[in-house]
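pasting for ref. prot 1 ->
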Amino acid sequence: MKQWVQKLIDQLDYEWGGSEDKKKASAKISEDRATLLYIIDTYSKHLIDVEGHPVRKVRETLDGFSKELVSADKENLEDVLFRFRQFFMSYKTAEYSFLRKTFEDFKGIVWDFVGQLSEDAAQEKTDDRVLDATLRDLKEAVEADSIPLLRQKSREFINVYVSQHAKKEERRTKRVRAVKKNLDVVKKQLVEADRTMRMDHLTGAYNRRSFDEQLKEQHQLYTLSGIPCSMIMLDIDFFKKINDNYGHDTGDFILKECVKLVQDVFNREGDFVARIGGEEFAIVLPNHTIEHTVTLAERLQARIRKDVFIEKNMELRFTVSMGLAQLLDGETTDRWLKRADEALYASKHGGRNRYTLAKPHAGLSQVA
């Protein structure tokens, strides 16, 4: 079996029943089946809450399909794939409807805003036409050399001008207020949409999209300034067992408590804590050398090992595995992330509840 396939199976935390059962199940995994498992696992880490399809339930269902794909015989594989296609189609349809509705709501706000401006502009054009007509009448009265007519048209022009000017000022005041109100609504919607798109709804950590943007930003800053930057990849050990033994509500509780602890330790302005998968987190630390990062990683693990969490009258404990990597000269963000991920994988394979320092790639040296 290829190494990447074995690594994928190990990450699933499936209840195999024993090493022999695991070997037998692993022997069934073709690269095609493993690729589908990888796609499901990746998609599961980037779900959004959709009406009727909460993230927790969707992730639970996808985990179930993953387990079935691992253990299914050839005779049952087609049935598993059929049911997976049906579920995936249903979820994607709901997801598309949700995104479409969100877009339509935002488009409606902008459209109302534009419509109001258009109505005001049209009204001003109408008023200007009325004023122009009155002005033409006044000019004709001057040319007619008639005092009574000139007096009449002068009064009419003054009355129209004063009235139109007052209405215009009133409309302008109302428009400014309405525009400000609409802009405040649009701004609020944009801020909320940006927050929703950048934050993990469950834990309050940043999400994968924000994490990817942060990596690029820190890479650019390092290229320009040479100020060190480190990363920690963190995974809650045996998290799926927590879900299986205590339920997903307790699993969600552990995720939130884990983020609180991480944010408490990494509380400096600029420290960036993100949830990038189900139970996987990343911490980006600008202006941190690997030595400083090690100190903080040890502090975090000591806190987690010591703390007892109370949920539904149960005392709960958990541990974490970590991979640490400092950005190197000439290194891309993908390589940086890969080194941290490989270090995390080494921690999990080495017994978990520990951290591992990433190894430099060939040709790259650690920056002091």
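and prot 2 ->
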Amino acid sequence: MFGKGIHLFKLFGFGVELDWSWLIIAALVVWSLAAGYFPAFYPDMATTTYWWMGVVGAVGLFASIVVHEFSHSLVARRYGLEMRGIRLFVFGGVAQMDEEPNTPLAEFMMAIAGPITSVLIAALAYGVYSLGVRLDWSTPPRAVLFYLAWINGLLVVFNMIPAFPLDGGRVLRSALWKIKDDLRWATRIATYAGSVFAVFLIVMGLMSLFTGNFIGGMWWVLLGLFLRAASESSYQQVLVHRVLGNVPVKRVMRTDVQTVSPSISIEELVDNHIYRHHFKMFPVTENGHLLGCITTRRIKEVPREEWSTRTVGELAQECTADNSISPDMDAMQAFKMMTSDGESRLLVVEDDQLRGVISLKDVSRLISLKLELEN
């Protein structure tokens, strides 16, 4: 769910991506509308018409979610929070922030912007629907407009439930944060509320399945499972920010770095270094000077029969910003680079000199130790 998605467009400086999981949910939304919702409320129409209504309704829901998330992003920008874009996945979307809000007010304003926007969308859709009724439009467009008004109203009610990470849960967290001035405590309480609500949804979904309401029960169970996972993930993210915030990389890095000489053969590199230490990337140094990096991806480009005659120096490439960082960089930023780019190790470089290396395993150990010792 958090891997590379499909880039759709960019607006107001925010990129909009579509997670692959959303395609599955979009297909389920179309099916639910075409096979369940519209036939139940508007019977005796052609099957093809129901499917077209389902597609248009799903597109309208997609657009509503995008506008909802844009409102979060614009308000977050207003309060100085850096936004990486909007990601649409599973049951909705998320405005991707590089950091948590720095004040309870910023949290509240950012959270409440989404529901207010959904209220306006619902009112607009219902206003156009009412106009269509007066002008005697045909049933399909009126039905889709009424659905969009109803679903956006439902999104407002659902999102305002005080269960983190829903918007209502964020409003709750902002209030708790204001009361006790402790973001971690506020997040823990709001996350617990989110987990309890998620279990409630799962139980209600299972009951619906047993009573024959397959479509409704399926949605409740899936939504509950997703909300529970998102709630736990959000709390873990807060913990990581608290542990790694303002910790420089030089306090976490290792200085005993496994390096290789540019003169050794690729065969020696593979047998004596890669297979022994199990790293996919090695720094290439000579007399303490960093010459470049050699990766398994680069080695795979060379035919196996040439490994004994080709040297590391021939294949080494310049270490890029993707695999090297400064010792003064924040450890949280290094952690984000490793988790988002799939790089398990980053070289710590200063003035073309290799100072150390930081790995995802080392950062994970630090997080675990700090949580254990400092509660």
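The chain has a mean pLDDT of 82.
The two ends are 30 Å apart (CA to CA).
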